[in-house]
Amino acid sequence: MKTYGLRDIIGPIMVGPSSSHTAGALRIASIARKLFGGTPATARFTLYGSFAATGSGHGTDKALVAGIIGLAADDPNVSCSFELAEEAGVAIDIVWDTATACDHPNTVDVHCEDGDGNVLDMRGVSIGGGAAVIRRINGIDVDITGEHTSVVVHQHDVRGVLAHISSVLASCGINIATANLHRTEKRGDAFTVLETDDDVDGKVREYLILHPDILNARVIPAMSATDGEPVEVPADADEVFARWNYTSGAELLALCEREGATIAEAFRAREEALCAKQGASADIDAYLDRVLAVMDTAATTPITAPERSIGGLIGGEAAKVTESLNGDDKKRHLMDPLTAQAAIYALATLETNAKMGIIVATPTAGSSGVLPGVLLAMRDVRGYSHDELREGILTAAAVGYIVARNASVSGAEGGCQAEVGSAAAMAAAAAVAMAGGTPTQALDAASNVIQCLLGLVCDPVGGLVELPCQKRDATAAPVALVCAQIALAGVENLVPFDENVAVMDKVGRELPMELRETARGGIAAAPSACRFCAGC
């Protein structure tokens, strides 16, 4: 199971509109590019499941092309990737296969070729929040999660190859975390996939391919690697991480009690320990500052400079609500300033997301308006400080990690409750922590949200992260504040947080396929929505 860190839950910082369908797809194509060894001459992408049903509206095709030509998830040029690919001489073919069933709804097959006869066939799945897993390479089943730096070796299945691989890594001072051999048949072609605790540089590949039975070797950097410089792994890294790690709400509360820490302090310590274990500098405050800066821009720009979305369904809503609340007729001011500002910021963030602007997935792009809406409103209306906002983000990440680990934050897997519901639960816990509540009250607030938004379906009109996504974000932000206030008042929950997460997971998986991001049910199937989609 993947070990989620701060950047997995509060992030990625990315071009919208979808963390699973845009950032996750880009990640898959980026891995294909690394495995292929550079930019191919031709690339064919075959999309299945939710990818095929809603990928056009999510910009999945643009993201795949962006990844194969080397763009990053937060590069504003993702939206014009087809033009850039044409300029680079890369022939692109997109196949939307809505008929073939796959184990995971966000599945894509990537086929790359060049003029020298090199070919790569790879299957990847996007598992939510911008993360991805590689399931197959050249017909051989593999399992590359991206938690660690991976070395992927294509070889003949003969004696001595594994010994050569391990000796090369040992001589380069690289510790192997896991090693798995995947093969078609005895003495046939095989892939050895090694996950390492250390960064791997280019010289390792040069040494590996000296063996005559090694056909190729590629390095895939860790998916959640920080922007900081590599650091030496402390001798007690595993022990320190075990001290601060937790896997459930109950364990988190016990950890806070044992260490005399807030949730934010506990998660900060866990993140520092996780990064140390992975040989990376944490740079937590620098990352949080960047997150807040991106959130601020995404939540404020559309209020004064609105633009229409890529799909044309939204644009200008935040400005309209702001104008209505600035009017003289007080009878039309139905929200107090805090909840009103939270809703406006959430509306605005989704406008930024829908025009393929840069946002922070929290925990997904489709739910990226909820947490900024609450945090920035508390700053602007109630005067919370920058440091208190950092505390709120860390608290939100601590809660989101539990949901991602034990349930899902992907709409294709668990419906909108997994995205907007999780985001609102994170925001409610953050609000409680910033207001001085206890760790127990923070989890009670998150539980309140899950119960209120349980069963929320994912039904994007036309497959676009626009309608009803924007309004759900805007209403979920005030819901988070209400649920936080209930918890702060000392109202306890009969059902504990972990049980609420388990119920949300069960309900999400029981939702029919039509209500899990396929744009074939719910609001997306209403007559007016179908007319917008030209009868899709």
TrEMBL record:
Keyword Protease set for record: no
Alphabetically ordered keywords of this record: 4Fe-4S, Gluconeogenesis, Iron, Iron-sulfur, Lyase, Metal-binding
Protein name in UniProt: L-serine dehydratase
Listed EC numbers: 4.3.1.17
A molecular-function term among this protein's GO annotations: 4 iron, 4 sulfur cluster binding
Keyword Zinc: no
Catalytic reaction equation(s): L-serine = pyruvate + NH4(+)
Annotated metabolic or biological route of this protein: Carbohydrate biosynthesis; gluconeogenesis
Domain of life where this protein originates: Bacteria
ACT domain ranges (all copies): 150-222
GO biological process: gluconeogenesis
Cofactor: [4Fe-4S] cluster
Broad EC category: lyase
PANTHER family: L-SERINE DEHYDRATASE, L-SERINE DEHYDRATASE 1
Alphabetized InterPro entries for the sequence: ACT-like_dom_sf, ACT_dom, ASB_dom_sf, Fe-S_L-Ser, Fe-S_L-Ser_bsu, Ser_deHydtase-like_asu, Ser_deHydtase_asu, Ser_deHydtase_bsu
Gene: sdaAA
Cross-referenced Pfam families: ACT, SDH_alpha, SDH_beta
Family under the similarity heading: Belongs to the iron-sulfur dependent L-serine dehydratase family.
